Amino acid sequence: MSIHTQTLGEVLDRLAVKGSLYEVVDPDDKKLRCYACAHQCLIKEGRRGICQVRFNEGGVLRVPHGYVGALQVDPIEKKPFFHLLPGTDALSFGMLGCDFHCDFCQNWLTSQTLRDDAAGVAPQVISAQELVQLALHYRSGSIASTYNEPLITSEWAVEVFKLARQAGLRTLYISNGNATRAVLEFLAPWLDGYKIDLKTMRDATYRRIIGGVLQHVLDTIRWAHELGMWVEVVTLVIPGMNDSNDELWDAARYIRSVSPDIPWHVTAFHPDYKMTDVGHTPVETLLRAAEIGTEAGLNYVYAGNLPGRTRNWEDTRCPKCQTTLIRRRGFHVVENQIGTKGICPNCQTPIPGIWT
Fold first, then answer.
1. Distance between CA atoms of 10 and 250, rounded to whole angstroms?
2. Which CATH class name applies to 67-336?
3. Structural domain spans, the chain
4. Average pLDDT per block of 10 residues along the chain, 356 residues long
């Protein structure tokens, strides 16, 4: 069969390799339990997990490997990471598939592959070595797994990240946070930064619109922090879904309970995918969310996606003396007084993050 007559699913299956993030539950019936994400799918022979890209073939879990569905160089602030090599670029690669089905997904063309007939792009075969060489060629400071859900392609990410670390690159996940403790421990030796989406503080919304469980994401934030990853949390503030004062307070208080030094990004929604009947997030809503985060005791709160319109909420300020340390407009760093030292030059307060 030529590649031109194969379905996208057949192409992806041919690129799959034996995974490691699973256990055999029933050797006789060849049933497997995958633990790449918190769904922990029980997969019968010949069937797929919820993500659609991890599947049971003859009692062996086959997983994505050796391709990208999206590849580009982004400012690290776009991920967004504000306390990790500010002003540098990240070589950003994505594969295909996701374990969530968010109605408002802004990367649905890649993430909803094999779930939505309108989604899917042709995979580009590439090796881990070639990805790292591209990052070095474009003088990126880091390499990021993004655009789809990286948890479901963690075996491939670790293969890439091991080489990236040897080349002096930082390694990043841009994730929905639907992790298991096991996958985080698998990633921890090789992963520097973990951006987690905290999409809502209402479990019913997670189950109905997103396809997940709130507690799993809350656990991931805590576990990733405990395992020493640099964590930044993002909440896309969607009018009428998660923008009430109560819910924003709940999110801020939870993050604060893990660490007041975890940056919280509250970002503006724009209509996309299946949620085109909801308007853009007003700037006033983001300002209110940012103020709530600060009042809740978070030291670093940022308002994003509306460059130049959120007062000084794009900037990093010293929590002790309030000196502006990093001035930003959108994804562009205008001024950086921290440099690689990670301290406030005015009062010598250490500023948590990864600066070198």
1. 44
2. alpha beta
3. 67-336
4. 71 96 95 98 97 97 97 98 98 97 92 92 97 98 97 98 98 98 98 98 97 98 98 98 98 98 97 94 98 98 96 97 97 94 96 98
